[in-house]
Specification:
single chain, alpha/beta, 6-stranded parallel beta sheet, binds NADP nicotinamide-adenine-dinucleotide phosphate
C-alpha cells in the first residue's frame, strides 16, 4: 500500500517507518519541516505529491503541562490539524489513521474496569481536551478512519529527540540519589515498536473506527520507574508519592487503563505485557 506518515521523525513515526517498510508498503515519511498539519496549503502540497492511499498522522502537540498556558496552540495542532487532514482525506478518498491518547479520560477518577471504546470520555487537561476534539473531527469528517488511542509512549527516537519517560528515568537515576515518583496514577505505558506492529495489522483490515491500543497489564509511574532501575541495575532510592505532592500544571488521570480487546479481535495481535515490552526496549537501545 502507498502510505504517507506524518511526524516521521517522532517516536511512533520512526518505528512505523521501519515496521511498515518491513511489511512491504511504499512509504513517504514527512517531517515537521516538510508539512505543518495546521496549514491546509502545506497539507495539500505534501499529500498531492506523495498521493497515498492511507495517511497516518502521528504529529501532535504533546507538551501536557505547557498546554495549560497555551491552549490555543494545543487546539490548533491537536484539533484543527486533524480536522484539516480529515477534510483532505475525505475529499480525496484517502484513508486516515490518527493517533490519540488515554488522556481523553480522567474525569471519573479512580475506577475499574479498563475503558472500552464505547465508554464516555472525560478529559481533565487542555491536552486531553484538544486531543479529544481532534478525534471527533476525524471521526465525523472522514468515514474511512482509524482512530487509535494509546498511552505513555516510549520509542528509540526518544533517546535523541523529544525524550520519553524511560530515557528521563535512565538519566535521573544516574544523576540523583533519590527520586520521588507518583504512585497513584494507574496506566499502561506502551512501546512504539509494539504499537507499530498493531497498526500495521489494523490497516490491512477495512474495520474503520475507534481503537484502544496499549501494552497489557497495568502499573503506576513509580512501579514503572522502579522496574526500569531493576532491569538496568541502576541503584537509586525511590520514594512513592501521591499526585498531590508533585507540582504539575496539568491534571493527569488517576486511572486510564484501556481495554484493547476490540483491536485484538480485529487484528489477532495481542500486545505483550508492559514489563516484557520494557525489557525488550531496554535491550534494543543498549
Ligand atoms: N508520547 C506519549 O507518551 C503519548 C501518549 C499517548 C498518546 N500519544 C500520541 O501518540 C502520537 C505520537 O506520539 P510520539 O510520542 O511519537 O510524538 P513525538 O515523538 O513528539 O513525535 C511527534 C512528531 O510530530 C512532529 N510535529 C509536531 N507538531 C507538528 C505539526 N504541527 N505539524 C507536523 N508535524 C508536527 C514533531 O516534530 P518536531 O519535534 O520537529 O516538532 C515530531 O517529529 C501523538 O498523537 C501523541 O499525541 C503520545
Amino acid at each position: 500500500m502507498q502510505i504517507t506518515i506524518i511526524g516521521a521523525q517522532g517516536q511512533l513515526g520512526q518505528d512505523l517507518m521501519s515496521s511498515l517498510a518491513a511489511d512491504g508498503h511504499q512509504l513517504t515519511g514527512l517531517t515537521h519541516q516538510q508539512v505543518s498539519i495546521e496549514d491546509a496549503t502545506s497539507i495539500a502540497a505534501a499529500l498531492d505529491q506523495s498521493s497515498p492511499e492511507l495517511v497516518i498522522n502521528t504529529a501532535a502537540y504533546n507538551k501536557v503541562d505547557q498546554a495549560e498556558s497555551e491552549p490555543e496552540i494545543a487546539f490548533v495542532i491537536n484539533a484543527l490539524g486533524p480536522r484539516l487532514l480529515a477534510q483532505y482525506c475525505h475529499q480525496h478518498n484517502r484513508r486516515l489513521l490518527h493517533v490519540s491518547t488515554d488522556y481523553v479520560f480522567g474525569l471519573e477518577g479512580l475506577r475499574e474496569p479498563a475503558y472500552k471504546e464505547t465508554d464516555a470520555p472525560g478529559p481533565i487537561s487542555v491536552y486531553g481536551q484538544s486531543k479529544l476534539a481532534g478525534e471527533y473531527f476525524v471521526r465525523s469528517i472522514c468515514p474511512q478512519h482509524y482512530v487509535v488511542r494509546t498511552c505513555g509512549l516510549y520509542g528509540k527516537a526518544g533517546k535523541t529527540r523529544n525524550g520519553n519517560f524511560v530515557e528521563t528515568m535512565l538519566r535521573l537515576g544516574k544523576e540523583r540519589d533519590e527520586l520521588s515518583l507518583i504512585n497513584d496514577q494507574h496506566c499502561t505505558p506502551t512501546s512504539t515498536r509494539d504499537l507499530s506492529t498493531a497498526i500495521s495489522r489494523l490497516i490491512t483490515t477495512d474495520q474503520f473506527g475507534l481503537y484502544h491500543a496499549t501494552s497489557s497489564g497495568q502499573t503506576t509511574w513509580c512501579e514503572f520507574a522502579q522496574t526500569i532501575f531493576e532491569l538496568t541495575g541502576i541503584n537509586v532510592q525511590t520514594k512513592p508519592i501521591p499526585t498531590e505532592e508533585y507540582q504539575a500544571a496539568a491534571e493527569r488521570p488517576r486511572y486510564s487503563l484501556l481495554d484493547c480487546s476490540k483491536l485484538e479481535k480485529v487484528t489477532g495481535y495481542a500486545f505483550p505485557h508492559w514489563k516484557q515490552a520494557l525489557s525488550t526496549y531496554l535491550e534494543s537501545t543498549e
